[in-house]
Design goal:
single chain; 137 residues; mainly alpha; 5 helices; 66% helix; elongated
Length: 137
Amino acid sequence: MEENVDVSSLVANAGQNQQASQALTQIKIPAHPNTKFDEKQFLELLAGSISLTINEKKKIIEAIPQLSQFQIDELIKIFEEERGKFAELEKKHADQIVELEKQHAGSWQDLEAQSEEEAKKAAEAKQAEDIKKQLGL
């Protein structure tokens, strides 16, 4: 079950509680037949993580099929704790937290753009292969 989630606004407001049900993203979670979790919530929490770099976030997404249910549950727990702690910090250090959130929002948008570009290239390659098959090449 793949879901699209708009996490850019979540990253921009990582320390705040907010609804993201109507937002979309290009990031897709790979199939994970051995685990069950709310993909949308997972992406929202992952995108909102200020402590992880964008490369670390990408590696987590790629590793999902190999993770156990316990590991997924623990990641969700850690992301929720981080969100709560940053919400507390935001009250005292709003300017610094907002700046961190902006940096991470830009990184996530870069990851979304990269994912979209990879999907386009794969679709073009498939289309070219289909044309070759039709032509008997």
